[in-house]
Write a structure and sequence with these properties.
This protein is α/β, with parallel strands linked by helices. Strands 9-14-13-12-10-11 form a six-stranded mixed sheet, sandwiched between helices.
Length: about 750
């Protein structure tokens, strides 16, 4: 009996020791993989399925009742930064201390132009970020966004957007970095590195080929083949996966070549993970799983939608209830638990990787010291300044000479309205952004009178205000007319605000909406100098302005400091250095007008276009080229390029070509120049573009000074998919082109790849 009791005591003691032993998944010294597997084996099927779902939360008093069990991710996008921090702190403390395994939630937020919590710094929209042609600056901006997110308790940004802006009617052009896959890849790489350096995961989206929808209609299918997918749409994703290792990627709503992405194991697993090497977890675009039933009609039931998406490789379902059916489906034998484990493993890996299990301290009292700090606001202004593109400047009318112009008529529907763009947290009136009117008044002070009138609105056919605008122009020395589009986040009642750009707001015509062109023409008839300021989320048809205005200045939505930045450019306090990251069409029918077209598309046609006075072929009344092409932009000084040197002229496909040249500022103002490197494959077995951007460097050059610029070109950048879908660099000659824009090439050299 004593022996039995002793044995029982020893067994019981051992059990108590095991029970008291710290679980391995809570040991921060162990590898992430080991911690994930330890936690996964402890979880029930129910707990694992919960990790594959997203929840919204807003009421701090409902945290304990709402989160009796752990969850995959949560979001809240209506509170102030400090309120969100208090909410997330209580929620995470509850999840860690009061749920069985203490698994924290992955807190998420939109972050295209800053954290979407009220009160956070509003940076310029993504299309403006791309126009800076300064990836390092965007990386710095992403770090600032990451710092604001982290102090609030947010650990995942639903950004950046890697869609390619080739269909200009699409409302979400403003969320992209532009039309060029190389530039998009560079911008996104620095964004991901920046945010993740602050412990906040990035989520490139929308995988894949979402940005060229048929008819420009959001979510419509995208046509294309496997070669185009690899050479174009997947290129920026592959670059970011390779160089920045993002924690997550977001799938897209749409279908490519008739195949819904969310439905496809080929695209979401074989291609995304096997071919492109993505290692993180996949987060569904909101509601895209159930859309397999209600939108694509690819499945008959929500249960089948959840099953198809999970097997395809969608790890987390957001904004519908499809994955709530998975537990029962596993129990019924409709789907193997292996797929639940696979997805759960990926979600848990992200949580460990971002430090949620080891460092979830949230300090709401520190929010005000970080969010919208002076440094972040100054950075937002710097990004806005570098994004402004000077498109026309006849007779050097800009910068404005305030000794000559004592009264300014500031006209147009965007003259006294700041526009943050899609996913900006601003209210309907955009009062959180500095308007051009406020910025210009502050900049000119009491020495110059600024008379403001809208003249017309940004969307309707009403023209009764044009007469008042004309009267102010006649009474002033010069007219500045701010026209363009308006955009507002869908979550802030965008439909009621008559927006003309943004998610879900696609245009059938790229002409200036409403009566804005009539306003321009009426002001021009006064005989006063006219400066057109285009404030927009996308390129519009500006052919009349290019021909008739004295100057045209482009400002893609410039964030909270947009008015100050534009005023500084107009007055010459800032030398404009932005460049077009998306080409401008001559008309709606002139689209697509991107620069990196195949030779057969424009160069080898028999005629070069006509005009209204001289009809011709291709097109009868118009040139088939962009009005202003990719890479274009003027400044207030001039630059001279010289002494181009190549490190070699005969290379292997594994070589890195170094291109060196000197850039001299020959003007009287300090300025920033954007040196652009393009490449053309002279002979290729499949069509390749007339030129492709493969290097860019923005350099500051003081007046009268000269700097040496070096760009590197890995020859692997010239790889393509041949007719048998084999990936590689074809031997032969490549033309190295260096210039100021895609249509202003200054140097051409030829290298040979053996």
């Amino acid at each position: 009996m004593k022996k039995i009791l002793l044995t029982a005591f020893l067994v019981c003691g051992t059990g108590m020791a095991v029970a008291q032993e710290k679980p391995r998944y809570k040991d921060a010294s162990l590898p992430v993989e080991e911690r994930v597997e330890d936690l996964l084996r402890r979880m029930t099927l129910h707990e694992k399925v919960l990790q594959l779902q997203n929840n919204s939360t807003s009421d701090i008093n409902e945290v304990e009742s709402r989160y009796k069990e752990s969850t995959g991710s949560v979001h809240e996008m209506g509170k102030t930064a400090k309120e969100a921090a208090e909410l997330f702190k209580k929620m995470q403390q509850h999840l860690v201390s009061q749920t069985r395994l203490g698994i924290p939630a992955l807190t998420t937020v939109e972050g295209i132009n800053g954290v979407s919590q009220n009160g956070c710094t509003i940076f310029p929209q993504a299309i403006a970020q791309g126009a800076t042609f300064n990836p390092e600056l965007i990386g710095e901006m992403a770090q600032a966004i990451g710092r604001e997110a982290h102090v609030i308790g947010i650990r995942q940004l639903l950004s950046p957007v890697l869609d390619i802006a080739r269909e200009l009617r699409w409302g979400r052009v403003e969320e992209t970095y532009g039309e060029d896959p190389y530039l998009i890849g560079e911008m996104a790489t620095h964004f991901v590195r920046g945010s993740q350096a602050e412990g906040v995961g990035a989520m490139p989206k929308h995988f894949v080929a979402h940005g060229t929808p048929t008819g420009g209609l959001n979510c419509a299918h995208v046509s294309g083949g496997e070669r185009e997918l690899r050479n174009l749409y997947a290129y920026p994703f592959a670059k970011v996966f390779r160089n920045a290792d993002p924690v997550a990627v977001m799938s897209c709503y749409s279908a490519y070549d008739g195949v819904p992405m969310t439905h496809s194991a080929y695209y979401m697993t074989d291609f995304l993970r096997g071919e492109l090497g993505f290692k993180g977890f996949v987060y569904s675009d909101w509601g895209s799983v159930d859309r397999l039933k209600v939108f694509h009609q690819a499945v008959a039931t929500t249960e089948e939608a959840g099953r198809k998406a999970l097997v395809a490789g969608i790890d987390m379902d957001v904004w519908d209830w499809a994955y709530q059916t998975l537990e029962e489906q596993v129990k019924k034998g409709l789907i193997d638990e292996y797929y639940v484990d696979r997805a759960c493993r990926r979600v848990l890996t992200a949580k460990f990787r971002l430090g949620l299990f080891d460092d979830m301290e949230i300090h709401p009292e520190k929010v005000d010291k970080v969010v919208r700090s002076k440094e972040h606001v100054a950075l937002a202004r710097r990004v806005a300044e570098e994004s402004i593109v000077l498109l026309e400047n006849k007779n050097d009318i800009l910068p404005l000479d305030l000794n000559r112009y004592k009264s300014i008529a500031l006209l147009g529907p965007n003259s006294a309205c700041g526009v943050a763009g899609d996913y900006g947290w601003v209210s309907a009136g955009h009062h959180e952004c500095v308007t051009l009117f406020d910025g210009l008044k502050a900049a000119v002070g009491k020495h110059v009178t600024v008379n403001q009138a809208d003249g017309c609105d940004w969307w309707s056919q009403k023209e009764d205000g044009i007469a008042e605008a004309v009267r102010l122009a006649e009474q002033s020395d010069i007219a500045i007319v701010a026209v363009g589009t308006r955009s507002l986040w869908l979550g802030r009642n965008a439909k009621a605000e008559k927006v003309t750009s943004g998610e879900g707001f696609d245009l059938s015509s790229l002409d200036l909406p409403g009566k804005q062109l009539d306003l321009l023409k009426a002001v021009k008839k006064t005989g006063k100098p006219v400066v057109v300021v285009l404030i927009t989320g996308k390129p519009l048809v500006m052919t009349w302005a290019q021909e008739h205005a004295d100057a045209v200045v482009l400002q893609f939505y410039g964030g909270e400091q947009q008015g100050n930045a534009m005023a500084d450019v107009l007055l010459g306090k800032v030398n404009p250095s932005g460049r077009l990251n998306v080409s401008f069409p001559r008309s709606t029918g002139n689209t697509p007008c991107y620069y990196n077209y195949y030779p057969t598309d424009r160069e080898t046609v028999f005629d070069k276009g006509g005009s209204l006075d001289e009809p011709n072929g291709h097109y009868v009344f118009e040139k088939p080229y962009a009005l202003w092409s990719f890479g274009y932009g003027l400044g207030y000084t001039d630059f001279e390029y010289s002494d181009l040197q190549l490190s070699d002229t005969v290379l292997s496909d594994k070589s890195v070509l170094k291109v060196r040249l000197k850039v001299k500022n020959t003007g009287k103002r300090d300025g920033k120049e954007v040196v652009q490197l393009y490449v053309r494959d002279k002979i290729s077995t499949v069509s390749t573009p007339v030129r492709q951007l493969k290097g860019v460097k923005k350099v500051e050059v003081p007046a009268g000074r000269q700097v040496e610029v070096e760009l590197e070109l890995p020859m692997q950048e010239m790889a393509l998919c041949n007719e048998r879908m084999q990936w590689g660099v074809e031997p032969g000659e490549f033309e190295i082109q260096v210039g100021r824009s895609s249509d202003h090439i200054l140097f051409n050299r030829t290298v040979t790849v053996k």
